[in-house]
Amino acid sequence: MNKSLLILLLLTLVSFSVANRTFAQEVNNAKNEVLVSENSIHNTEHELPNPIMVIPFVILLIMIATGPILYPHFWEYQYPKISILLGTIVVIYYSFFLHNTSSLLHTAAEYFSFIALLASLFFASGGIMIKVDKKATPLLNVGILFFGAIIANLIGTTGASMLLIRPFIKINHNRVKPYLIIFFIFIVSNIGGALTPIGDPPLFLGFLRGIDFFWFIEHIWYIWLPTLLLILIIFYFIDSRNKGSEFDKVYSGKIEFKGAKNLIYLAIILVAVFIDPNVMSWVPNFSPFPIGLREIIQFSVVILAMKTSDYEILKYNEFNAEPIKEVAFLFIGIFATMIPALQLISHEANVFGDKLTVGMFFWSTGILSGVLDNAPTYLNFLSAALGKFGFDINVATDVKEFMNVDFIFLQAISVAAVFFGSMTYIGNGPNFMVKSIVERAGIEMPSFFAYIYKYSIPILIPVFIIVWLVFYF
User: Fold this and answer.
1) Which of 63, 283, 340, 375 is close enough to 53 for a disulfide, judged by CB 3.0 to 4.6 Å?
2) For residue 250, what are the CA distances in angstroms to 129, 130, 168, 170, 352?
3) CB half-sphere exposure, 366, CA atoms < 13 A
4) Between 107 and 304, the higher pLDDT residue
């Protein structure tokens, strides 16, 4: 692993551990829910942050949006320092002014869980080669995107994205344009993974809280399928206008696959996802350290994949560690700076929860999932919906009763968190990784705001309005 990335992970681990040792009682109380954000609505024992503390988060988002365009040289070399500096401001505020280190503990645990999963899938999939020797056509691209949406429910949106983005680029090498990658993010990196807890992190957190594993596919498939087909139809018509650069080449029509041993690594990563104290009672809890057995296994897979992946495959995939390094640095700032925003949102959702309709839950969860991490946003609104009907998110029997009696609210929150994660580069972890990978391959991607006003708003919002009108109006 890149030395600077390793140093980042170690420094983060140490800083959060030191902060938590001074508040041992809070750590002990948080012991059995290290994956759950302190910002969940039921947590009210701590003072709310001053709204001014949202400013570091806003600054970071603005710099992510403007840096690559207005001051690219400065941003390329300084973004790690900027991200850590802005995150440190929030960490100091919570540690020494609010004396609320349990929020930092939960956020650190979420960050390490997030980066362990992304890094392990990134390195494991980097050693897999999928070579499709076929001429790129709109129909073939639709097939690849639909296949990606299916397997996203089996290996997660991150796994599917890392596995397919490189072959998708190579198939379209003579006709690559930004819209191809944007639709890949829409479908494979987000909307595709709405049917299982493995598919997307918000749904996995719901599973940890007591939602049945197969509940999602049973109650979401009939929203997922037409939404997916509608977006694929839009993509087909756009892609049909892309003729690319014509040249004479004979295609064999073969599909070549290499790196089978890395499939074992992917299987280990996915099994490790469920090695959690909230799922299996025998799993040890390593508090106050914000990592667990799951993260140790996944980081071990990173090292194993680095040591054993076939060099020729890595070379063919043009594989390097820069994309995961960029994600690691930027998201440590995002995770830290969004703590005040999430806690304030949590408070407001709790206050007005009884006034929120199912449509309001859909749009509130969705819009905030697009600009914040969709996993804690999901938990906040899930807790608010449970509270609306007198249920407690911490009681598994309450969650199961809510799941069966008032499933429309759970459905709306789940659909919104997953679907709207595609609205921005930071709505879901694999979005930014895909962007970074394709940019390293020399493909120019739209800026943060261009992504929103050129693609998300004109393409996704009309589709989501249809979903709202049909199911939640």
Assistant:
1) 340
2) 21, 19, 19, 16, 63
3) 24
4) 304
DSSP structural state of residue 289 = S
3-state class (DSSP) for residue 421 = helix
Total-model pTM: 0.81
Encoded tokens for 451: 């992504």
- Residue holding tokens 């070579």? 131
Q: What is the pLDDT of residue 247?
A: 61
pLDDT at 424: 93
Identify the pLDDT of residue 26: 35
Joined together, the tokens standing for residue 182 give 């944007």
- Find the largest Cα–Cα distance for the chain: 70
The residues, ordered by sequence, that sit 6+ positions from 180 with a Cβ below 8 Å of its Cβ are 141, 168, 172, 239, 242
CA–CA distance, 439 with 75 (Å, rounded to integer): 15
The count of other CB atoms within 10 Å of the CB of residue 216 is 28
Q: What's the mean pLDDT in 101-107?
A: 88
CB-based contact 101:23 (threshold 8 Å): yes
d(CA 17, CA 23): 10
Residue type present at position 458: P
Query: What separation in angstroms does the CA of 73 have from each of 68, 78, 321, 326?
Result: 8, 9, 20, 15
